[in-house]
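Hi support team,

I'm filing this because I wasn't sure whether my run with aspartic acid finished correctly. The job status page said complete, but I'd like someone to confirm that the output block is well-formed before I use it downstream. Pasting the exact inputs I used:
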Amino acid sequence: MARLVMKFGGTSVADVARIHAVAERVAATVAQGQAVAVVVSAMARVTNELVALTRSVAPLHDAREYDAVAATGEQVSAALLAMALQSLGISARSWLGWQIPIRTSGAHGSARIQRIDTRELETRLARGEVPVVAGFQGLGPRGRITTLGRGGSDTTAVALAAVLGAERCDIYTDVDGVYTADPRIVPGARKLDKVTFEEMMELASSGAKVLQIRSVELAMNYRVRVQVLSSFGDAPGTLIVDEGEIVEKQVVSGIASSREEARITVLGVPEGVRAAARVFGPLADANINVDMIALTLGPDGRSASVTFTVPRNELALTLHTLEGARRAIGFEAMEHDASVAKISVIGVGMRSHAGVASRMFKALAQKGIAVAAVSTSEVKISALIPEAYLELAVRSLHTAYGLDAAAT
Ligand code: ASP
Ligand code: MG
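And here is everything the job wrote out:
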């Protein structure tokens, strides 16, 4: 019997009517002869409220207790969905992380799944029962409840699909798939039928918020086919699959954008050739994640200026760290800008096509958009631009790479 993992996000289980609708969908899939395991998120907004509660009681709370609070949202939605399924005559049972158990690391608040005991689930699936698993949570090494980081039920679902050998992991959400660009920015953006694991990985880490990054990483490593689709309709969504499954590869599949960056420029760093090492050493020690980098060597090579980006919410910490290391680094001045944005052009086809970067810079230059830093991977080119130009840049690039939907 083919196995399927069906995961429903917060908006899909937002209220009782939605939960019944989800139950109907699961029942219809079971009726087609599939063995189904379900994973749910907490009902919409519930996790935010729980997190706010922990903050209001103690801003610097203990991470173990944070997890104990945050994990409760999924307990409610899983049990309610199991009831709704039962009312349709489906044999269903809810499962919390510790009951399976889903073993995780002890990193409370962002734990990693390490092992899933499938024995009980296998027995129940074989009997035709539908397990409804609470996403986002697990059991840490010391017997305490852990959570996997915000958006973590995606990761629960993919992990479960991997260990159960499911044919696919369907992730039901409030968008009907992965688009060539954010449709709120580009009205002519198109839904992609298929996208590769690698492209999805870059999209997720470049600002597209459809899936938790870790879930894509897991899907890529364990070759789990994932489908992102809407629970508000019946249209097929976007399949995230191995490159081999995609016949016609696009040079560029999508444009992503992120406002979560801040730029810092450190001026007059001595010893030009060693400037980067001088600046990034103290940042690494402070666990600050540097993303894009640009280096400008002074004419005599004796000094350099170093431009880089960090997550916007780490800007203050970064400035503080640099100020503290000012003497050791020996820089003359530094400046920063929190109103920057990163735009990324993504596509596996760029591995074998030349001119992708030049087209990007030409399109940006034509609109008079200045690029302060660049970073690339095999399948991605990112540029740092002023935030005010984000929309214009995304639209221009969408057109420049021929991604606009054909007028009909
Ligand atoms: N309920 C959790 C959150 O809001 C996990 C999830 O939705 O995936 O982050
Ligand atoms: Mg989510």
